[in-house]
User: Fold these one by one.
Assistant:
Number 1:
Amino acid sequence: MRPAGRPARPRSARPRGRPDDFTVGDVYRHPLGRTITQTDNCWLTLLTQNTAPLHFDAHYAAQTAWQRPLVDSTFTLALVTGQSVADVSRHVFANLGWDEVRLPAPVFEGDTIYSQSTVVMARESKSRPEAGIVRVKTVGYNQDGTVVISFLRTLMVFRRGHGPVGVPAPKEAGADA
């Protein structure tokens, strides 16, 4: 959505998450990794009423090809989506969907997950002039660099000057007295 003639930002620069900050081809390596714990996996699995013992029963999982519990894939999807928020959807109006979710390798408790997103589409919204539509391809990978998840995500993002205001500034002490 960058206007013609506006210089391209270095691919490693951080956008501010507004539609006009994105250019097709921009790649954002998200700054935070996260090590997945047994508690993360067990809690999310049980919270979502997933009854597959492969995710929370070590004895059962030891009898499978994996020989240990697998991390619930919806946790991996949520984690990698969350990692992208600072760069991609901080000023989200609405998440419009995930497509082509792929899980090419397993995730285990103790793995550390990192991620990056590539902008594949950015345009103005046809129905909401205060917003734009951005689509990214996001990949999550473990500490060894093995890709464990990939997906396309489409979201509507407030344009600059629209949407909720940020964090308010503090008032000076005694100013209300």
Number 2:
Amino acid sequence: MRPIDWHTMWVPEMNPLEVILRVSLVFLFAQLVLRLAGRKELGRYSTFDLALLFLLTVCLRRTLVGDDDSLTTGFIALATLASWDRFFSWLSFRDRHAARLLEGRPLELVREGELVHDNLRKTHISQKELLSRLRSHGRDDLRTVRAAFLEPNGQVTFLFRESGGSSSH
């Protein structure tokens, strides 16, 4: 067993500003790619999605911090990611236009029991998939749905017609 190399553990090989720049560029690009992938894709996590997420982190590790294995570089990268996340959360909270751009708006999929076909096409959600999501709410008839929305987080929200009880689930 070799002794702990404190110097290698803490002293970064990369310039910290380069780490911040690399992490920032990759984070912003990843946000763009995920945004272009569509909200539907964010609302479900299959084994494929989890494998992709894992492989993405493995692939990007060298892009973010190069060959630098120091804890300092890892901490700088993590703090940069957390800072971007915090900044976008703050910006979304402070400015509704920024929130709309960063988070998106709900998109109506069903109106008064009828499919909104243009929006289903835009989101690549089939009638079969929408009905599957409706069944997860214990219903199987679109006529019971007053409205359904694809939320910015990829989930589908159903608002049900009044039938002696609450109108939303």
